[in-house]
Amino acid sequence: MKNLEIADLFSKIADALDLKGGNYFKIRAYRRAARTIKDLSEDIEKIYKEGSLTNILGIGEGIAKKIKEYLETGKMSKYEKVTRDIPESLLSLLNIRDLGPKTLHILHKELGVENLDDLKKIIEEGSFSKLEGLGEKKAEKIIEGIRVYEERMGKEKRFLLGEVVPTVNEIVKKLKNIDSVTRVSPAGSVRRMKETVGDIDVLVESNRPNEVMELFTSFPEVKKVLESGETKTSVILEGLDIQMDLRVLPPESYGAALMYFTGSKDNNVRIRGLAQKKGLKVNEYGVFKNGRRIAGKTEEEIYKLLGMEFIAPELREDRGEVELALENKLPFLVKYDDIKGNLHTHTIYSDGENTIEELASHAIKFGYSYLGITDHSKAASYANGMKEDELKKQSDEIDYLNEKLENLTILKGIECDILPDGSLDFDDKILESLDFVIGAIHSGFTKNVTERMIKALENPFLKILAHPTGRLISRRVGYDVDLKSVMAKASEEDKILEINAYYDRLDLNEYNAKEANRRGIKLCINTDAHNLRMFDWMYLGVGIARRAWLPRNAIINTYDLKDLIKILKGNG
Fold this sequence. Notes:
With 572 residues, the protein is α/β, with parallel strands linked by helices. The protein folds into 4 domains: 1-86, DNA polymerase, domain 1; 101-155, Orthogonal Bundle (DNA polymerase, domain 1), CATH 1.10.150; 160-326, 2-Layer Sandwich (Beta Polymerase, domain 2), CATH 3.30.460; 341-568, Metal-dependent hydrolases (TIM Barrel), CATH 3.20.20.140. The chain is 44% helix and 14% strand.
């Protein structure tokens, strides 16, 4: 899919205009278009061929025309025009956290910064911190940002799981439609649901490997073939520029290969060591005893032969799962279909793209029984945060819709800003009228926010703390916060922490979610949806919960509505 390519072009147009001090509203329109296209679960080329680009919310005639130009010619004249006098290396520096367009413009104009080496040099020699409005503290933050940037963009570049999965799913779907194919599965980091992915492994079971390989290399998702053989083909995928290896296996080896290529490496080493103690040899071809294959068709038969429970792929990291599997004591993990509702969503009342009714209809399609509407509060002016009268109007609309709906209950909520002093953006009297309140920090997090969060958690009406570390995997480490102290307070006040499932957040991460559960804190998996497409990211949050060893009852939005309301009101 060309979704990521086009989204990247619009992001760079916005960045270039921002560097030049361009029109704020035009910049915002390009950024919105980039996010919209990046979040699409459908192939934008397919949407274009159906003649419906402007049916995508946030895509007007002007943006659609530029998409059409790129799809037909491979070029976008607007991008070429606005970036003509800006080095590509300079634009790429905007991926460094805490290095915004204004700062970069100053560095480019005053100190001639054009690339990463230039930036490092002016920081090392001290000229950066001598500029008015910057200083040593800003320099320290950018040094940390450079470290994160280099780690992500280095020799072993890693991609966000949510960037990769739509393309993987499309390829898997096409492979399943090949007549000679009987089984298909992603493997590696994708199957283990790691938040970032270095490359992609997909396994196919077929008795006609040459046919499979020939068809695979003709898929439009394939940009370049690196190596092609009867059992393994390696390619670079269009748009992502990530390597994918396709392996075709016979039925007798498929399960063993799936186990081996799913990994992790440490887990595989433990399994092989366990097998050796039993006089067995385990590899990607099967389980062997005295040179004779005795298992390998399925992972389940291999685990059974080794005297173990089946270990879910998300757990295969050698963190104690092998020992527990031998004792039949693995946790009963939350399942991907256990979620009964999405409790963090945004509508046109703030910065969302859809009406409440549109979100409700979509939630019903997902099989949800409840939906939480949580638009931004007034302090989030950049996100068109609601004032008190708008919240009242929204509440009346929800009452009206709840009278109409039969299979869904809409809950009244708000994503209420936690102000710098730890108070909430609305008076308690207003918050008390809602079904629940999500507290969130959206500004002022260059300072330590621990006490700010702790004070907010003392508010009796705040029930859920959103994206508790504030990280963005691709570019921002997150708040300066003592999360253990925040968790201690959340446990004391019986509050809930969010696993934000948006693919660039996944916040809490697996380690923090596991620690929260150890402390007895309940969690809520939400998508923070600003459009219908973002509902699709729920499974990423569940993947994080599974990697955190979380059971179903640790996640509040797996509960029936009656029990959920008890929890939200502090009676559960």
